[in-house]
From TrEMBL:
Subunit: Monomer.
Source organism (scientific name): Flavobacterium micromati
Name used for this protein in its record: Adenylate kinase
Any Pfam family matching the protein: ADK
One Gene Ontology CC term in the entry: cytoplasm
């Protein structure tokens, strides 16, 4: 299995790139947001547990998030690989993912980070917010808070994956096709 972690701040284009990459490489795209929405909407046991934290205004603990992702991966035993979008977000999630993948004789092949200037990304999100209906994409202060959380919690994962030789930064500015070509060049050289 070729497992890829897509990394980047909100608005960097992870979801857009995932759509192209899953088709090109026949990967299973697993978005943390989609997994959460499925579990909440279908009132699964994990969804019920997550709702308790969310209703209290707390972040869902790493262990519970990881359980949801493992359940999702296990639904695709014959996949060519997984394209992780939005997971892992913390060091403990990265370690848990590695442990899980090792247990099924697999591993993360690469972490591809879509990089772009914050001001460009903020404009992208504000533009997306005009049509997406997402409240968190319509308020510049909320966007900046999301970036602060990203910097504090997610950015340290770069060092974790760099130490394994699995971290690949990619310029996330340009046309969708140009960015897809850059990301594909990384995957093709794994």
């Amino acid at each position: 299995m070729t497992n890829i972690v897509l990394f980047g701040k909100p608005g960097a284009g992870k979801g857009t790139q995932a759509e192209f990459l899953k088709e090109k490489y026949k990967l299973t795209h697993i978005s943390t947001g989609d997994v959460f929405r499925f579990n909440l909407k279908n009132d699964t046991e994990l969804g019920k547990q997550a709702r308790v934290f969310m209703d209290a205004g707390d972040l869902v603990p790493d262990e519970l998030t990881t359980k949801m992702l493992i359940d999702e991966v296990n639904k695709h035993p014959n996949t060519n690989g997984i394209l992780f979008d939005g997971y892992p977000r913390t060091l403990s999630q990265s370690v848990a993912l590695d442990e899980f993948l090792t247990s099924i004789n697999s591993k993360v092949a690469a972490t591809i980070a879509l990089e772009a200037d914050d001001e460009i990304l903020i404009q992208r999100l504000l533009e997306r917010g005009k049509t997406s209906g997402r409240i968190d994409d319509q308020d510049e202060e909320k966007i900046r808070n999301r970036y602060q959380e990203y910097n504090e919690k997610t950015a340290p994962l770069m060092d974790y994956y760099k130490a394994q030789g699995k971290f690949f930064p990619v310029n996330g500015i340009g046309s969708i096709a140009e960015i897809t070509d850059r990301v594909s060049a990384v995957i093709d050289n794994l």
